[in-house]
Amino acid sequence: MHAVCAGIWRAEEWQLTHDVDQTFSFLKCSGCSGSVSCMKKAMGTIGSLKRREIEEKKAIEQRRREKEEYVTNGPTRSSLEKVWKKYGADVCAFKQTFCGNHVYKLLHTRQRPTEIGFATFLLALGDVMKLCVSSALTECEMDELEDGIARIWESLQNCAPHGTITPKLHMLMEHVMPFVKEHKTWAKTCEQSIEAFHAVFNRLKIRQRSTVEKKKQLTLIFRSLLYLNQVAD
Which PANTHER family does the UniProt record give (predicted)? Predict the structure, then answer.
């Protein structure tokens, strides 16, 4: 009877009752004997879950309205876009979004609030990325780069002291400046060249789309990449 009372219907489950780490609840031992009492408890649980579902749906709807207010087409969003446009951050007509240049303009406007929190990090990051150029850096530019990296670290300690140190952040903090001081540049070896390679590959793939055999198509693309690299060198 205890097996049925605990909802155990298979022999494998009954073997678990000998394990001290397993916990079972017996309806009869909990004062819920009889079908009427068990049904009453079950209906009470169902009612509690339904009330919780209604409350969570209301909370989700409230968050959805708040998102529309600030992110989509609410009056607050419209007012913000007018201010952003005033400082040169006009929403892209094609993608209906912003780019890094827009953020840079907003952060460097004279009427922006005091540099606190995450804004300080973004400003320092923008100053560092401005020096990611293919030409050789001067001594003054290298000093600016080192100062920008130091400000990035300081701002992260203030706004995200318990954040995870990612491999890229570690490279920026510890290895970029020694590399720059030795080679006078860091943009020539950054990942942007690899990202640009993707665009070249996609363009060549379109050119060779009439080649049905996959292996031959990739061979022709690779050969074209070799030719382009030879011209670039």
Answer: AUTOPHAGY-RELATED PROTEIN 14-RELATED, PROTEIN CBG23806
- Residues 117 and 169 placed together within one structural domain of the fold: yes
Q: How far apart are alpha carbons 222 and 204 in whole angstroms?
A: 9
Contact indicator for 158, 120 with CB cutoff of 8 Å: yes
Tell me how far apart the alpha carbons of residues 218 and 201 are, in angstroms, rounded to a whole number: 10
3-state secondary structure of 98: coil
Q: Are residues 138 and 205 in the same domain?
A: no
Nearest-10 Cα torsion for 49, 52, 57, 62: 180
| Dihedral class, residue 35 (left if φ above 0, else alpha if ψ from -120 to 50, else beta) | alpha
Residue type, 87: Y
Residue 208: give the domain boundaries. 201-232
